[in-house]
TrEMBL record:
NCBIfam families found in the cross-reference section: FMN_nitrolo
Keywords assigned: Flavoprotein, FMN, Monooxygenase, Oxidoreductase
Organism: Sphingobium agri
Domain Luciferase-like: 8-387
Keyword Manganese in annotation: no
Single GO term (MF): monooxygenase activity
Keyword Repeat: no
Pfam families assigned to the protein according to its UniProt record, in alphabetical order: Bac_luciferase
Family statement: Belongs to the NtaA/SnaA/DszA monooxygenase family.
Known EC number: 1.14.-.-
PANTHER family cross-referenced by the UniProt entry: ALKANESULFONATE MONOOXYGENASE-RELATED, C2H2 FINGER DOMAIN TRANSCRIPTION FACTOR (EUROFUNG)-RELATED
Protein name (Swiss-Prot/TrEMBL): NtaA/DmoA family FMN-dependent monooxygenase
Annotated InterPro entries: Diverse_substr_monoxygenases, Luciferase-like_dom, Luciferase-like_sf, NTA_MOA
Length: 434
């Protein structure tokens, strides 16, 4: 039986992706971009659609009200800005897409539109922008605000932000640059326009002072989970990032909902690709999960609980981690993950240590095993979901990378489930190949 053909993205950050797993040498080496340049080459050889950089603008300090364990475990920081890294990664590659995160809450639209246009030119049409509204109070305080506006208002602002960016990107028509030596005209002024944007939140005269970039706009990506978030992504995004919570039925429903919402807004749903974020765990030959040492277990637990403190806005240091998950924990941030944890405590007697030692996999989806087993599991899920791709969680898995690109991907290619060659050259063309 023919498999559903799917796309591949690789999720990472411009930081120490695998501390302490990959040791001291890697720990200090990534900041000059050399690691990610090599990564881009490896992923391009495996014909991934894109590398994706998440980002945030804080040093975490929610756990025990201290930065100590965030910094010790390299959870949220240190992190460098991924945008300047994209052109560096483009230098030694020719096709792989390069997507980075930037916040609509903190950037002025004109500056970000200009920056992304520049990066799309520098990468010859391979740039993408993950549009986030940011969710951390600490980030707000870094920009002189006491707190963030409520999520729905942040999305209202983001909608207008994107509308303005598109007008600015369109302020240069295709063919505006003529460089005609006979007439002496470099740019045809009839093809460059002011935008005179007057919104509720932003005003801008325009035009942008860049050239029109190879793709016109960078590819727009977003991960909406709430009602308002899904409305935003189905209106604006071309790459939508989904979670695998809810298993296959949940994935299917999420993808269908995004497609339906997009169609209602006059878009072609096939112009949107939904990528599901997933870890993979590849076992060495022999097919058994390697036993973790006690020190590795403790390190993973500490990393996970400190990370969760910042992302859920809960100080987990206050609780007994070996008792069933306390039912009186309240969160400042996303609550669905916390509800899931409390339920595991209530119904299965799980402790915080159980949950945070288990590592990832809260989705209930299991992509672990030998190279062949992982490939089979991915294909089985995608055959049922019907598309469009997986965003493979890279951080923390550097040692698995050779098995992924030299083992799992070739197995998927042999089965006809992923591409063996690029057809397009820009990121948008590559995403629309199938
Ligand atoms: C794969 C994935 C990547 C994300 N990357 C970021 C990121 O880099 N920075 C950030 O602030 N939020 C990030 N988010 C959070 C989303 O932007 C969004 O806020 C979240 O999915 C919740 O959806 P909602 O805003 O509709 O509630 C990411 C979410 C997912 C699923």
């Amino acid at each position: 039986m023919a498999h559903t053909k799917f796309h591949l993205g690789y999720f990472t950050k411009f930081g120490a992706t695998s501390w302490p797993g990959d040791g001291k040498e890697f720990g200090s080496q990534w900041a000059d971009g050399s690691y990610h340049k090599e990564l881009a080459k490896m992923l391009e050889a495996a014909k991934f659609d894109f590398v994706f950089f998440e980002d945030s603008l804080i040093v975490g300090d929610r756990y025990a009200n201290s930065m100590e364990l965030d910094l010790k475990n390299a959870t949220l920081s240190p992190k460098l800005d991924p945008l300047p890294l994209l052109p560096l990664m483009a230098q030694d590659t020719s096709h792989i897409g390069l997507i980075a995160t930037a916040s609509t809450t903190f950037y002025p639209p004109y500056l970000l539109a200009r920056l992304l246009s520049t990066i799309d030119s520098l990468t010859k049409g391979r740039a993408g922008w993950n549009m986030v509204t940011s969710s951390e109070r600490n980030a707000a305080m870094n920009f002189g605000m006491d707190k963030l506006l409520p999520p729905n208002e942040r999305y209202d602002i983001a909608d207008e932000f994107v509308e303005l960016c598109k007008k600015l990107w369109d302020s240069w028509e295709e063919g505006a640059l003529v460089a005609d030596t006979e007439t002496g005209v470099y740019v045809d002024h009839n093809k460059v326009h002011t935008v005179n944007f007057e919104g509720k939140h932003f005003r801008s005269r325009g035009p942008l002072n860049t050239l029109r970039s190879p793709q016109g706009y960078p590819v727009l990506a977003q991960a909406g989970a709430s009602e308002r978030g899904k409305q935003f992504s189905s209106k604006n995004a071309e790459v939508v990032l989904g979670m695998m919570t809810g298993g296959v039925p949940g994935m299917k429903a999420y993808r269908q909902e995004i497609r339906d919402r997009a169609e209602k807004q006059g878009r072609n749903p096939d112009d949107i690709k939904v990528f599901f974020l997933t870890p993979v765990e590849i076992f060495p030959e022999g097919g058994e999960r390697p036993e973790m040492t006690e020190a590795e277990k403790q390190s993973a637990f500490e990393h996970n609980i400190v990370m969760a403190s910042s992302s859920l806005d809960v100080d987990f240091s206050q609780y007994d981690v070996d008792a069933p998950v306390p039912q009186d924990i309240t969160a400042g941030g996303h609550t669905s993950a916390l509800e899931y944890m409390k339920k595991a405590g209530r119904e299965e007697g799980k402790s915080l240590r159980d949950l945070f030692s288990a590592g990832k996999g809260a989705s209930g989806m299991d992509f672990s095993g030998t190279v062949e087993q992982v490939a089979e599991k991915m294909m089985a899920v995608m055959d049922e979901v019907g598309g469009d791709g997986f965003l493979i969680e890279g951080s923390g898995y550097n040692r698995q990378l050779p098995d992924l690109v030299n083992g799992v991907i070739p197995a998927l290619q042999r089965a006809g489930a992923v591409r063996t060659e690029y057809e397009g050259t820009t990121l948008r063309e590559i995403l629309r190949e199938f």
